[in-house]
């Protein structure tokens, strides 16, 4: 009985996460599956549904940008670096005081220079997508 409930919860999670699946099916599905399994172990059927939803979003959110975006950001002239106390980590938002530079070729991404590191950011959520070393 629990297996059916877990599978049903995972299916509902995937069905409701269609917009994330449209961006990158592989990472979103992997995230959802991993989250559902982890959630089921920790919290049973309800944990599977919540873990699947969290995994779906996380799997889609931390997918690296296309190589052409990374190349574009690397080729931009060096601007003043903003110094922030918090570490810049993929999946975490940059502070509001950090100015983002748009990428005209792909408005899904912006970039900035923080703590002397070039950072690619999702401009809608201000979430760090990639830190270029």
Automatic annotation (TrEMBL):
Superkingdom of the organism of origin: Bacteria
Alphabetical keyword list: Signal
Protein name: YMGG-like Gly-zipper domain-containing protein
Domain YMGG-like Gly-zipper: 24-62
InterPro entries membership: DUF1236, Gly-zipper_YMGG
Native species: Pararhizobium capsulatum DSM 1112
Signal keyword on record: yes
Record-linked Pfam families: DUF1236, Gly-zipper_YMGG
Signal peptide stretch: 1-22
